[in-house]
Design brief:
Layout (H helix, E strand, L loop, with lengths): L1 H35 L3 H14 L4 H9 L4 H12 L6 H17 L3 H14 L3 H14 L2 H13 L5 H15 L3 H13 L6 H14 L3 H14 L10 H6 L27 E8 L2 H11 L6 E8 L2 E11 L2 H12 L7 E4 L1
Antiparallel strand pairs: 1-3, 1-4, 2-3
Length: 344
């Protein structure tokens, strides 16, 4: 009788443990499902609960790090995972890649390159290769970027090849090799299902302008206006054309926790930093409202550009172009924000 009771208790404990494990697993699965849908808000509750119940599980830690608003905390978790030999190669590679993305979004391209390269060496994949190449471009190491991108282009696998072609075009554009840049952009546009069609058309406009092929530039611009008009409301075309090739990234989520200082106010300043230009005044006002949480001098100025009104969002007022550039490099670029210095 005693033996039966003991066996029964063990069975009951096993059932309870199984139910608890299933509950923990369900929270984690639901949270990760929301993440896959891009619903970080809904994911946060489930992932946090799963992490609090089991902070040893590598997948739980990886998901928990992703939902952190504090960039420092996220980096701490990713580093711990990357150093955990029991986490598995896939998890460690992902942790290193995401760690690189954090620094990439802040403009820390040296650190981003180091983490992306470590991920690439641990488990070479198209994603880590592309990220390493993009960080190398921003770092100014165009030779390395070309060496990484060229083999991907040769695989002819869309969309990775289309993306590689776009960034390879950027490499040639920055080298002032405009014919080669144009060829890359054309091939990227022609790739089936290429998500980089719009940006590649924009790159083609820039290359055509540099080659003084006015008709071609206008034709490509017309395609953008017809199919990708949102690009005309971004800083993708205008700043690069004026600066000779400053490609900034817009596809990496920035994190809070790294600080920013308000822009200096100076009513007599002749220069300001333009951070966006929108056909929709509502979109311009929305961006201004978001920026006012971090900067105390944000304005919206309308201007006519090619027969249409654009509402330009600007930060700060500076006495000299050098002061404006220094502020932008110190306070905007590390946040992943693009800008151009303009006169008022």
């Amino acid at each position: 009788m005693h033996i039966c009771d003991t066996a029964g208790k063990r069975s009951a404990i096993a059932v309870v443990c199984a139910c608890v494990w299933l509950a923990h697993g369900r929270d984690a699965d639901i949270g990760r499902s929301f993440l896959e849908q891009g619903n970080v808000g809904e994911a946060r509750e489930y992932i946090t609960r799963a992490y609090e119940k089991d902070s040893i599980s590598a997948p739980n830690v990886l998901a928990y790090a992703f939902i952190q608003l504090d960039g420092r905390r996220a980096a701490q978790l990713y580093r711990a995972l990357a150093a955990d030999g029991n986490a598995g190669v896939d998890v460690r590679t992902e942790a290193l890649t995401r760690l690189g993305m954090l620094f990439y979004a802040q403009g820390g391209y040296d650190s981003a390159c180091a983490y992306f390269e470590e991920a690439w060496r641990l488990g070479p994949a198209s994603r880590s290769t592309r990220m390493l190449a993009r960080a190398a471009i921003n770092k100014g190491d165009l030779v390395k970027a070309e060496a990484l991108l060229a083999p991907m282009v040769a695989l002819h696998e869309a969309p990775p090849a289309a993306e590689a072609l776009y960034y390879l075009g950027n490499v040639y554009l920055l080298r002032q090799e405009y014919e080669q840049a144009m060829n890359c952009y054309k091939k990227s546009v022609g790739s089936f299902g290429a998500p980089y069609t719009g940006p590649s058309l924009a790159g083609g406009v820039l290359a055509a302008r540099k080659l003084e092929k006015t008709d071609l530039a206008q034709a490509l611009y017309g395609k953008i206006d017809q199919n990708f008009d949102f690009l005309l409301e971004s800083s993708l075309l205008e700043p690069v054309a004026d600066s000779g090739g400053s490609f900034a990234e817009h596809d990496i989520e920035t994190r809070e926790g790294f600080g920013a200082e308000p822009a200096p106010k100076n009513a007599r300043g002749s220069y300001t930093l333009q951070v966006g230009a929108f056909a929709s005044v509502e979109n311009a006002r929305k961006l201004r409202q978001e920026l006012l949480a971090r900067f105390d001098d944000v304005t919206v100025a309308p201007a006519r550009v090619r027969g249409r009104t654009l509402h330009k969002v600007r930060i700060g007022s500076f006495e000299s172009e050098a002061d404006a550039e220094a502020f932008g490099n110190k306070r905007l670029r590390p946040k992943g924000m693009t800008f151009r210095v303009v006169q008022k």
